[in-house]
Write a structure and sequence with these properties.
single chain, 180 residues, alpha+beta, Arc Repressor Mutant, subunit A, ADP-ribosylation fold, three-stranded antiparallel β-sheet, 6 helices, 9 strands, 34% helix, globular
């Protein structure tokens, strides 16, 4: 399978496992899971067939480990805009986390902090390099430093997804360090 096909399948999975499962007639359970066979059948019936082998390769080879398959079911590790409970326990974050964005968002972030927007949580990276990659998806990256230790000390909770993305409800601007 070529790289373009892998990307198309990955984007298809993101759309339907994180945002619009009803679009292809699937229902995610409370934890965000759906049977692999149900997903494959629905995708084929809606004009985007892919094989179990292609699905397994996309899940295994995705550099961000966005999806997981367990016991014949699949789900996205985080990033949902539909109601799911990933059942992630509260975790002690490292002292600092990072968030990649672009310059056009910085003014709003300075005023409001980091908000989840259309997702359930704010996504934070464990290292500057990952945040740089995330920010560069939409232009020249700007990497913000999050004082996670201070946030935790102030009572904010953090969770970490299976693929290492740190999640929190909101990052107030007082806990952010801006470049320059």
């Amino acid at each position: 399978m070529d790289e373009r096909r892998m990307v198309r399948i990955s984007k298809y999975l993101a759309k339907h496992l994180r945002h619009q499962p009803e679009r292809i007639g699937i229902t995610l359970d409370d934890g965000g899971w759906v049977e692999v066979g149900t997903l494959l059948t629905a995708a084929a019936e809606h004009g985007f067939p892919f094989s179990p082998a292609e699905l397994e390769r996309v899940v295994a080879d995705n550099d961000k480990r966005r999806y997981v398959i367990e016991d014949g079911r699949i789900r996205a590790n985080q990033g949902h805009s539909v109601a799911v409970d990933l059942d992630l326990p509260v975790a002690e974050p490292p002292a600092f986390l990072y968030h990649g964005t672009v310059a056009r968002n910085v003014t709003a972030i300075r005023a409001e902090g980091l908000r989840p927007m259309n997702r359930h949580h704010v996504h934070l990276s464990p290292d500057r390099e990952t945040a740089t990659r995330v920010g560069s998806r939409r232009g020249a990256p700007v990497v913000l430093v999050v004082d996670a230790a201070a946030m935790r000390g102030a009572g904010h909770e953090f969770r970490v997804s299976a693929n290492g993305v740190w999640l929190t409800d909101h990052v107030p601007p007082t806990f952010l360090r801006f470049p320059g």
